[in-house]
Predict the structure.
Amino acid sequence: MFTLISHLWCKFTKIARGCSLRRSQVHRHSKVMSGSMLVNSFMDRYSYCGYDCIILNADIGAFVSIAGRVSIGALAHPMHFVSMSPVFLSHKINLKMKFAAFDYLPVVRTVIGSDVWVGEGAFIKAGTRIGNGAVVGMGAVVTKDVPDYAVVAGNPAQIIKYRFDEAICSKLSTSKWWMLDDEALAGLAPLVADPPAFVKAIKNLLD
């Protein structure tokens, strides 16, 4: 009984923290879990973001699965300055001292395509694009663009394979199935586990 109560209490306190959405839009059919923060970002339909994520200046597509503790679009420091410390910059920081007030807060958009899966603890550099259908492995550090349907992992992240053969990847990319309305998707849903049959069916639907 004590173990069950402890579990429920831990779950409650984790959920009760809530999430922070600032200048962001999340589709009504999408979900951002507690402890996560979205700033100046957009999330399309049927996507979700796990616990304790930080997402800045990002455009997130439809049917995207983002695990917990993911960082997307973190702000950069001015490496071309003598010092990279924010005590020389104009924007607000937690430190009280300011020696100068140089303007340096570049807003770079990061794009996460549709049907993307981002694994636990991944880091995605600001300004990169994750292609449609791509997979970012757990703990990966993404510093450059990821092609459609590629699976990347490691630090820095490297392509280890593609989810399907070239023909299937191409046809899925071209179909843009994630833009179909709910009725069309419901009709195609029984074929989701059979990519060749799905591709054939969507071609017939769109022709």
